[in-house]
Amino acid sequence: MEKSRESFSAEVERTYAAVLERASIVGIAAIAAAYLLYVLHVLPLSVQVHDIAANWHLGADELVAKGLSPSGWGWIADLGQADVLSLAAIGFLTMTPLVCLAAASASFLKRKDYAFTVIGLLQILVLLVAISGVFTSRP
Fold first, then answer.
1. Is pLDDT of 60 > 60?
2. Which range of residues forms the domain containing residue 116?
3. Which of 16, 44, 69, 109 has the smallest set of CB atoms within 10 Å of its CB?
């Protein structure tokens, strides 16, 4: 029984690692592509470079107040702009642990290890709630 448990643990670890590798490669490629679109001016910018340099010292709230940065989830509407697309690509890369947890949870479910499946899904839920900003004090 113990040997079977160890081999299953190794299988889950390999699954997690394989998904992490693939998602990381895709994320890094997305960042590189978005950067090239930005540098080569293939897509328009939501904020011009001279405005970024002139307001570099401001905090996020001040940038939003000046109309130089979207508030909350407003950035989604600007995905067609190179600077926002670059930030979204970075955001995608930061989401790789969620994808890995989903793959590990699927492995646990396949094995009918419901306790670890629930733990993995709860970790995903906690991370999604944290990302959403539901409990932040800002309006």
1. yes
2. 1-44+85-139
3. 44
